[in-house]
Amino acid sequence: MIQRIQTVYMFLAFAVAGGLSLVIPLWTLADGTSYIAGMNTWYTLLFASSAALSMYAILQYKKRQTQFVVNRLNMILNFILLGLFVFRSLNLSGETQVSEKGIGMLLPLVSIFLLAFANRAIKKDEDLVKSADRIR
Predict the structure, then answer these.
(1) Looking at the domain assignment, is residue 52 inside a domain?
(2) 28: pLDDT confidence band, cut at 50, 70 and 90?
(3) How many separate domains does the chain show?
(4) On the chain, which terminus has fewer CB atoms closer than 10 Å, C or N?
(5) CB-hemisphere CA count at 13 Å for 80?
(6) Of residues 74, 75, 57, the one with CA closest to residue 66
(7) Residue 27: Cβ-neighbour burial (10 angstroms; 0-12, 13-18, 19+)
(8) Per the domain annotation, does 102 fall within a domain?
(9) Considering the domain boundaries, does residue 136 fall inside one?
(10) Is the pLDDT of residue 94 over 60?
(11) Cα separation of 26 and 107, whole Å?
């Protein structure tokens, strides 16, 4: 059913990856301009694919195992995105290009937590269905 709690978690992950990533700045450049994910093609593609995977998982509400696997793949994608942000922030020297890290760099981490909560709820549903089948 589409009204389960894991659907809410996956929809929030979709909103974080699809909407907030294009609004919240990743970091602020030295000249004061905000750098958002839409300014880099790779970041945009990774956030868009994360949002697409979240929406695909929501639409697979009748297949809990498929949802679980797709959410795992989405978490791996978000870990890659988080790794790119950490690599970028650690490789830049001092104040030459980046003067302030933004909260947008934590968006993949928020998405990972939401997807983990969704997977935990999917696991609970799967265990409930298996226990009900045992009783019959």
Answers:
(1) yes
(2) confident
(3) 1
(4) C
(5) 13
(6) 57
(7) buried
(8) yes
(9) no
(10) no
(11) 9
